[in-house]
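Quick one before lunch.
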Amino acid sequence: MSKITLAKGLNMGLRKAMEDDPKVLLMGEDVGKLGGVFRITDGLQKDFGEDRVIDSPLAESGIVGTAVGLALRGYRPVVEIQFDGFVYPAYDQIVCQVAKMTFRSQGKIKMPMVIRIPFGGGIGAVEHHSESPEAQFAHTPGLKVVACSNPVDGYWMIQQAIACDDPVIFLEPKRQYHADKAELDESATPAPLFTSRVVRGGTDVTVLAYGPTVKTALSAAEAAAGEGKSIEVIDLRTLSPLDMAPVYDSVRRTGRVVVTHEAHVNLGMGAELAARITENCFYSLEAPVLRVGAFDTPYPPSRIEEDYLPDLDRVLDAVDRSLEF
Amino acid sequence: MSKITLAKGLNMGLRKAMEDDPKVLLMGEDVGKLGGVFRITDGLQKDFGEDRVIDSPLAESGIVGTAVGLALRGYRPVVEIQFDGFVYPAYDQIVCQVAKMTFRSQGKIKMPMVIRIPFGGGIGAVEHHSESPEAQFAHTPGLKVVACSNPVDGYWMIQQAIACDDPVIFLEPKRQYHADKAELDESATPAPLFTSRVVRGGTDVTVLAYGPTVKTALSAAEAAAGEGKSIEVIDLRTLSPLDMAPVYDSVRRTGRVVVTHEAHVNLGMGAELAARITENCFYSLEAPVLRVGAFDTPYPPSRIEEDYLPDLDRVLDAVDRSLEF
Amino acid sequence: MTQQQAGETPGFGPDLVEVFGPSQQDGGPELVQLLTPEGERVHHPEFDLDFSEDQLRGFYRDMVLTRRIDTEATALQRHGELGIWAQLLGQEAAQIGAGRALRPQDYVFPTYREHGVAYCRGVNPLDLLGLFRGVDQGSWDPSENNFGLYTIVIGAQTLHATGYAMGMQRDGVVGTGDPDRDAAVIAHFGDGASSQGDVNESFIFAASYNAPVVFFCQNNQWAISEPIERQTRIPLYQRALGFGFPGVRVDGNDVLATYAVTQAALQRAREGQGPTFVEAYTYRMGAHTTTDDPTRYRLSDDLERWKLKDPIARVEVYLRRNGLADDDFFEAVQQEANDLGHTLREGCKALPDPQPLSIFDHVFTEMTEELEQQREGFDAYLASFEGAHR
Amino acid sequence: MTQQQAGETPGFGPDLVEVFGPSQQDGGPELVQLLTPEGERVHHPEFDLDFSEDQLRGFYRDMVLTRRIDTEATALQRHGELGIWAQLLGQEAAQIGAGRALRPQDYVFPTYREHGVAYCRGVNPLDLLGLFRGVDQGSWDPSENNFGLYTIVIGAQTLHATGYAMGMQRDGVVGTGDPDRDAAVIAHFGDGASSQGDVNESFIFAASYNAPVVFFCQNNQWAISEPIERQTRIPLYQRALGFGFPGVRVDGNDVLATYAVTQAALQRAREGQGPTFVEAYTYRMGAHTTTDDPTRYRLSDDLERWKLKDPIARVEVYLRRNGLADDDFFEAVQQEANDLGHTLREGCKALPDPQPLSIFDHVFTEMTEELEQQREGFDAYLASFEGAHR
Ligand SMILES: Cc1ncc(C[n+]2csc(CCOP(=O)(O)OP(=O)(O)O)c2C)c(N)n1
Ligand SMILES: Cc1ncc(C[n+]2csc(CCOP(=O)(O)OP(=O)(O)O)c2C)c(N)n1
Ligand SMILES: [Mg+2]
Ligand SMILES: [Mg+2]
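Model of the thiamine diphosphate complex:
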């Protein structure tokens, strides 16, 4: 067993998927010789060749659109969008083509494509490099949307996403790429892809998180424990479809929920979770579902991004507000 | 006073705005000689010339992107997107440029652009002609999003949107364009643009609607009245920012809310409304906010679109479910 | 004010606008033609071909049947059986010429107007009506005839075509020298579509990877109400020069020339020589769709002029003049067309509406639990009306 | 397998790929040059100009100061004062040549690397650092110097430029014959950007409306790790031919030629003759940004070869050889550069961080009630930590 970063887990997972299935291709800007600006595809072009790890012209719609064609021809393209904020030129192809092909063809066409997006902030970057576009994709029927939060999940989830016959938007918390290491047991059996996971048990308040905020939520739970508050943390992992069973189960026990994500609060995942939880656990709720996310403003200059993004204190503040209801 | 359709109201409103301000320009596909595929710009090129009513090359990103440039030069472009489903090629320009210019420039740049989008279904059209993309825009800070529901609002709201110094996504329920007529009093003083309106008073359940579903909600209220149920209907009119005061006021009286829109339920406006209402009226709610929208599937073939879209019966069903809580 | 000015600018060479305006009535000197509007066989230094009598009669039959599909569907729309129909009237030669140049292993990415190409690929014409009737979104299986689903978002399919062609390269079916193996892709699109970013990006990807794709543009002079001059100020086929691959303008109302040019372009692609742009210079004789009213934006003079270039009439003249077909032949084709019309009419009316619950099918390859629940809820809801008046 | 094959294909003319490969080391025969890398003044039949001594010394000074801004900012990044920096090393001539060709009434749409053009427009170099330090997203007022904000989404600004130029047409400041009135727009972008749909759409709109815009592409041979060959297989300036307006390749390391060509293109635009594409053939001597490591993807040989074409060195040689500047001049410029460096260094460190509550400012022209509430909530939240350890 080895200790790996999220970047390494993804890289190993991609390599494994390419070894297992010759139809798996990687495409994107700088994914080849450079190995991607985050080095997630490091070494793969060298080992699998230019036909399987494809440096593309600088055009996101072109990347996703040609990947659609490759998928129609029987390939399983894994597309890298260099940064979250650059997915939008490909938005039309994603929501009108990738998402709809299977439905349009009444199931005759499969669209096994993975669109990898490094997402979220906290790396001191300039505009467009710190966005959290997940809600827009989760709102789009026909797309599956998942977010990994740790090295081990990175390794397994990317392989599972590639094996999935539906298109998957695969969100990678870029701030975590090289942050923490974890032990990977390559012989383990991973949980199914579209499932959420209780990552810390607790009894007073349920905190829902995914991607970069899982770490924040866990730290918050740790801090709260010191003050005698018991927080249950769920790593959602899948954003569309949502896996609500463990959430409802938790909420029925705690009666209080805080959702935290880096996306804007307005119409973010928290809105949907709040609506579903309230509808399904109406009589269990002691407090309304509270949301902690980015403010409803564009991403600010990076020197104040930590004020903008949800952090441990803001999660704890929401936990306290929830407990006060 | 004359009786006009929504199409006519919009046409008259555009004409008035162009008369009032020579900086107002119209741009889009087929808006000139043809007067738009829905004839909303009928006669305007003839009267205002080709420099002010501009037939564009067939490229939505180009239309919105050049409109940004025109706005930077001091013009007030009003862009027509031919159908909702064709806004996505322009999505990048809208969310990364139009929405962010003012913030990026710390207020030095204004972006007084209106993006008109005929939206919603029910006209028996083929794929991509019946979409409801509002949630994606409302999720984007820096954009304002409004939806008109009737001829009189069409006349006033389009003028107000054009006069607004911020970018406005202006949603027009295409199914209503030529449906009902209403009396227009051009000397009246319209309500401010970013306000919601109670369009029918009631005491038992609040139904929130906008655009095409306002009519549905009113019919539902009428039908429910026959069964002794009193439904209050609010036409939201503005989707971002939301005008929550009349909503909260209503909910505190009724304790029950149903939201209906044609967009997918998952992460639709109903999710945000449910989250806000629950947080702000937690102790007033007798039932969870219920949502009636399109299913979370792509828009189906038009022969079954009426099954797919919310209708009077589904709204009433939700009202009953709400009352049963 | 927004008029372009022609003339020399020092250093930048001649302004090409007036030299090669895009709207010469006859397509200009660069137009490849093998059969004139008058039905006269002419020759071309590069693209000549010998056509067998069978081929020529076949083209005629194909075009007549295609036209019948089109007029029948138009009539069905008028009778309320279709929600809308995208007519191809006038574009039969462009589509049959292109469609017949394909080999089985080639793959087609159509727009929403490629009824003639669909016919050539063996798609059941009845299957084309479902989308326009609103009972499905294209019911044929793309892999059965290597004919993709109709694409409505303008230009999107040109990227799919390029990606598919890249897949062929990876499958080793390009440039092998084996004519039964070597394959290519054809991407159809319109003159209006040439302005979309996606289409231009597809040129870039195809050039960059030298993908075996033929970009087949039917320049029918109009994008709904907008004339070709709004999209380009030089002949459209020259667009390709900016991307480093050849472009050719062919008389799209001449089925022989369209066939010859398309098959040469496809062959070039199959042999591994990369993309080609073919501009089929033609005219949309009808409305954009059955909901359009072209009298609002174009002159009937234009239409009259193009009527003289009818793609079917010229082949008929040629066949008759050269004694390649007799009245029996023409009558037989006519009869076949009538039968086809009848079949379509009856078949269309019999197309069943989809079941409401089918809304939930095929959103994904397997239904998710979420959708299962929505489906169950809707099922129960529908059941609650059973017997009741809804 | 994805290699392009050269040669004749019947009917389609020669395959241009090997004839005009995009990567000739010297830019190929079409390169407009007025000053060789060796500092020799050469002449060009179309684009020659007489430069005054002041102009020549001015170019030198501009380039030296621009380079200093760049090296200083790079150093500031290394010292942790900037989050990132996009270096222009090697592209000084392309930027100064273009920047100096502008008139005050012209308008510039830059990328994120146009520090030299910004300098020419009179933007305070310190203002350029804010974005890279993360304290703002461009703090200059675009309307003050007709210099737009840096645009990071590749190619987006080319459409803004075209729209702005359309606005100039509507304002009647094109083709009036009044040199103080006639105006044009310049849109900067990179070789990589040329593949974006937006850029190609901007060509289409500019051609369609004959808008007064110069598309100024610095082909620095690289888009991060991707060589120009990935984006085009023919010389990039030829892209314009596909859209019906002229394209020129100029030696982007030659400030004289870049100036001459750009000013001719701008003049053409101002006179109402429409768009021009200028490819400034140059080389990114440094990394893509300070976070990039070019040794992973390119050979140092290349770099060495381009060092011999340094844009500043050749002007210095020319000035010295022709006695147009003496040691005093060069020392004075050096001193000025040092002072500028010092000012930048000190100024950068003194740039204040934005206030957290400024997050809510300028989302809209007036703060909405919604944002007002979020702001108040955040204000109260921040206040709750006052005195406390956060
Ligand atoms: C992205 C997009 N924008 C707008 C439309 C609406 N629309 C449908 S067909 C059409 C004109 C297309 O013209 P052209 O490409 O010349 O093809 P033709 O219809 O003439 O065959 C337009 C604007 C669309 N389908 N997709
Ligand atoms: C739409 C978009 N995609 C990706 C990026 C990331 N990115 C930033 S610069 C760059 C390369 C640009 O190359 P080029 O256009 O040649 O300009 P240069 O950096 O060489 O000046 C890329 C891929 C981006 N900024 N925008
Ligand atoms: Mg057309
Ligand atoms: Mg470059």
